[in-house]
Structures are given as structure tokens and as C-alpha cells.
Amino acid sequence: MKNLNYDAIIIGAGVCGIYQAYKLKQMGKNFLLLEQGSDVGGTWYWNRYPGCRFDSESETYGYSFSEELLEEWNWTEHFSPREETEKYLQFVVEKFKLRQHMMFDQRLVSAIWKPGISGWELTTNTGKVLTSRFLLTAVGLLSSPTLPRYEGVESFKSLSFHTFNAPRKPVEFAGKRVAVIGTGATGVQLISEIADKVGSLTVFQRRPNWCAPLHNSQITPQEMTDIKNRYKEIYSLCYKTPSGFYHDVDPRKTFDVAPEEREAFWEELYASPGFGVWLGNFKDMLVDSEANTEFTKFIAKKIQQRVTDPKVAEKLIPKDHGFGTRRVPMETNYYEAFNQDNVQLIDIGENPIERITEKGIQTKDMHYPFDIIIYATGFDAVTGAFDRISIVGENGQTLREKWADGPQTNFGLSVSGFPNMLTLAGPQSGSVATNFPRGIEEAVNWCSQMLEYLFDNDINYFNPQLDAESFWGEQVQEMSERILFGKEQSWFTGYNSNVDRNYRHKCLIYAGGQIRFRKFLSDEMSNGYPSFVMRSD
Ligand code: NA7
């Protein structure tokens, strides 16, 4: 490791980066983790908006690698809130003594491939310059928030923030006139949580989403003991489903089941906790338009039943896509919030926002004064965090230039022309299209095995082949075309109206499921990494 500061540098201290740090420590390597926040947690460090929690069953979200950790940690809710997940990640970092390998408040500004040292030279915003043989990115899928491009966003004089950058101190909502723009998974959680805590709430909705009840509840100490006894079974179940959740599709097809039986099954799913209603539905629901339409009608009825004003219900019912063909926001009394007198829904299709003013929001019809404006307007997803770093590969091309028309990768884990770099949770990966930690553990395990192979064989250069990238691009495309999801505009398919892109409809993830993805990875490893050029200089 002549002339290099580190064997490996990891970027990002979220779920993925922490696990990679654990693996490198186990391997006894000289490594560093750089994090732009002031502490660990990634998603769970940043998103301090009220109501933030995951939609994974808590016991399926924790790391599975340490029995001791599983034994020591107690989840208190079936779908853990942000605060608890952040504490969990801090606990992991302390337990495995990873903090000493981490540097905080360090945003990576550039990473430049240096052939002379067969490694990367990294520069951070504080001016630190570090070199490393390998660069391991764990920069997050949803870590580059985007504000809407309305005139006057900067001019609002009172409190306004994007949900990702919500203030660290709890916001005082009592008696305040609050606006929320955006009704994706984030907006839905936020709106449900604050509706009864604010003076008034005005929701600006562009396109509604199909939401379903989360049915969260406390985990009793007895339940936690039972979970601990069943961890093996729990992880083996998650291992066998394409999504890494408990939920797997029902083997029956929608129209093979009698209407009353179908309805009873759907009622049961709607009343059950978590993503079952989306991922545990009839096997054709997410691939066949007619089957999808049938279930979509069922969900529309639910919205009509839950919202008292039929005109409001109509506005909350999506007309442009079927259930589950975009990310399903999971909710707790979301629809009921619109029955409250202090909550108003503005359809900005009918009444567009013209600009943000010093005192509020000017729409076509009127000016709304506010004390707080919250932007739940989403992210420059998946590729955004990479675009913000100047990553310069071996022929002087930046990664941003290479991906100008959409990402090109080998398994979503490496990029041709960018040697010695592993994108642990990168675009086109199968690991990011699952219950996140389940996919992440697999990707990090695979990358760590490859790193071990490189270290053991004194290989100081690897680069994926261009034709391997073409092959993987075809796989990503094929899987995306198989499902209705791939045809809709959402962040998974590269859509964000607030970002200029050359590509508008490119699936940014491998949607073939973790079982197929795992097979590609294990074949690659057992065949001696045929899709890479490797050498010892
Ligand atoms: P999403 O799912 O991208 O949702 C963003 C929302 O903001 C969505 O309703 C957008 O409407 C709306 N939006 C975006 N820009 C504007 C403008 N300019 N004007 C009005 N409304 C706008 O992001 P989330 O943060 O909710 O969720 C991201 C993921 O985080 C989620 O899937 C979970 O996995 C966790 P649109 O639909 O574009 O019309």
C-alpha cells in the first residue's frame, strides 16, 4: 500500500456504510469512513420531520450478522420511528467500535482516479486530501433533496424547510398555519402526524398516490422475546422472498378467484400490518393491467369510505396510475386527516401555485398566508448523490458525464472506467429494490468477499468490462418492462420534475428481485469475476 493513506475509504455512515465498516474492521484493513453529517444514521440522521418511520417490520430491518446484537437490541414498535432507528445505528457503531474509523462533517467534493498510485485521491469540503486503494460509496438513494422550482422559494420570511432538512429541534406546531407541498410517502407520514397538532394545515397536492394503512403498534416485551427466539426463521423467510420482506405474492391470479373470496382476501390484506397489501397480493396484481384495475377499484372504495366529503375523496383518488405502480405510502389515519375542519386540500392541478411570497403561497385563485411551509417534494433519487461529487475516472471522464443519459453499471455495484470503485448501494442494483438492510447485507457481503479476493491475491486494480455493463443494462430494462411499476413516473424510474435530466424514463433499480440478483452475484463470484479486468501493477 505504498503512497496510499488507506486500503479503503467508505463514503456515508448510513445502514450500508456502517455495515461495510464492520466488514473491513473484521478483515483487519486500514480504512476510513467519511460522513457529511455530524453523526451516524444516514436517512435516519437527516429526516427529522414528524412522523418519519420505516415501513419494514422492525425485526426485519435490523442487521442479521451478529447474534449478540440481535439478543441485545429491543425494538419497541412494529414499524420503528426514526428516533429509535437512529439510536439503533448508534448502538451498532458503539458496540463494534466503529466510530474511531469515522470522520464526520466531511462532504466529499471530488474523487479522482490516480493511475500512478492505482488508487483514488479524495478531497472533502474542509480541504482534507486523502488517498485510498479502493473507494466504496454508500451515499444513499434518497439523500439529495429537491425543492420545487417556484419563484420566490427563498423569499418566505417565516420558517420553511425540506423534510430531509427538518430542524434538529422539534418544531412548535401548536396554533400555526402550516402548508405541506407534496404527497409522496414522506408527505403522507408528515400530514398524518401533524394534522391534529397544528392550527391549520393546507396540503398542496399535485398527483395523489394510492396509500394503505400501516397498522403500527407497540411491541410488548413478551413479543420481543418471541421475536428473539424466531430470528433464524424470520431472516430465512426474508431471504426467500424477492423483496426481502415477509410478504410474498399469493400464487393465485385475481380472476381465478371468485369475487366474494377475492374481496375477503383483500379485506384481510387491508387490515394487516405493513406492505402485505402491496407485495402479498395476487400474483398478477402488479403485472397485469386488468388485475391491477380490479384491486385499484377496491382501494378507491376504501378512500371513499374513509373521507366524508365526496369531492375531497375524489381529489385524493389517483386517476393516472393503478395501485402499487408507484411506491405505496403507508399511512396512519391519513385519509381521516382530511375530515378535520382545520385541514384543507388544494389540488394544484386545478389551482396552480404561482409563487412563494414573503408571507405564504400565491396560487392562481388566491394568496394563502402561512407561518410554516414544509416541502415534502422528494429527491434527486439514486443518481443525485453521485452527481453532486466530482468523480473522475481513468480517462478523465466524470461519472456525471458517463451517466448523462442514465446510469450504466455492472450489477449496480461497479462502473467501467472507474477502477477500484464499488457502489455498494448504487443505481441499477438489486440490493436497493428490497427491504433495504436485507439487500444491503447481501451486496456488502459480496463486495467484501471480492475485496478479500483482491487483497489475498495482491490485485491492486479492477475495472468492469464495458460489455458486462451492456448486459446488465439489458437485465435492468427487461425486469422493468415486466412490471407495471416500470411504466409509471416515479423516482424509481428517474422522474423528478424539479431536476433537469437527459433521461426521463430509465429504471434506476434492478427490479428482478433479490433472488435473481443473488444468483447473478454468486455466479460472478464462483466463476472468478469474469466481468472484471483485474491486475497487479
Ligand atoms: P416522492 O415520492 O418523490 O414525492 C414527492 C412529492 O412531492 C410528490 O407528491 C410530488 O408530486 C410532489 N412534488 C414534487 N415537486 C413538486 C412541485 N414542484 N410542486 C408540487 N408538488 C411537487 O418523495 P418522498 O420524499 O415522499 O418519498 C421518497 C421516498 O422516501 C419514498 O418512496 C420512501 O421510500 C422514502 P408528483 O407526484 O411529482 O406530481
Description:
α1 packs parallel to α16 and α16 packs parallel to α18 (514-526). The protein is α/β, with parallel strands linked by helices. The protein has helices at residues 15-26, 43-46, 58-61, 67-72, 82-95, 185-194, 221-229, 231-240, 259-270, 276-279, 289-306, 310-316, 334-337, 384-387, 399-402, 436-456, 466-482, 514-526; strands spanning 6-11, 31-34, 102-103, 108-114, 119-124, 129-137, 159-162, 177-181, 200-205, 212-213, 330-331, 343-347, 353-356, 360-363, 367-369, 372-375, 390-392, 421-423, 461-464, 532-535. Helix content is 32%, strand content 16%. β8 (177-181), α6 and β9 (200-205) form a beta-alpha-beta unit. Strands 1, 2, 3, 4, 5, 6, 17 and 18 form an eight-stranded mixed sheet that branches. It has 18 helices and 20 strands. The structure holds ligand NA7.
As a whole number of angstroms, the C-alpha radius of gyration is 23 Å
Report low-confidence residues grouped into runs of 5 or more: none
Round the mean pLDDT to the nearest integer and report it. Answer: 97
Structural class: alpha/beta
Q: Total helix count?
A: 18
Shape: globular
- Describe the largest sheet: 8 strands, mixed
Topology diagram in text:
Elements: E1 6-11, H1 15-26, E2 31-34, H2 43-46, H3 58-61, H4 67-72, H5 82-95, E3 102-103, E4 108-114, E5 119-124, E6 129-137, E7 159-162, E8 177-181, H6 185-194, E9 200-205, E10 212-213, H7 221-229, H8 231-240, H9 259-270, H10 276-279, H11 289-306, H12 310-316, E11 330-331, H13 334-337, E12 343-347, E13 353-356, E14 360-363, E15 367-369, E16 372-375, H14 384-387, E17 390-392, H15 399-402, E18 421-423, H16 436-456, E19 461-464, H17 466-482, H18 514-526, E20 532-535
Parallel strand pairs: 1-2, 1-6, 2-3, 4-17, 6-18, 7-16, 8-9, 8-16, 9-12, 10-11
Antiparallel strand pairs: 4-5, 5-6, 13-14, 14-15, 19-20
Helix pairs in contact: 1-16, 16-18
This protein binds ligand NA7.
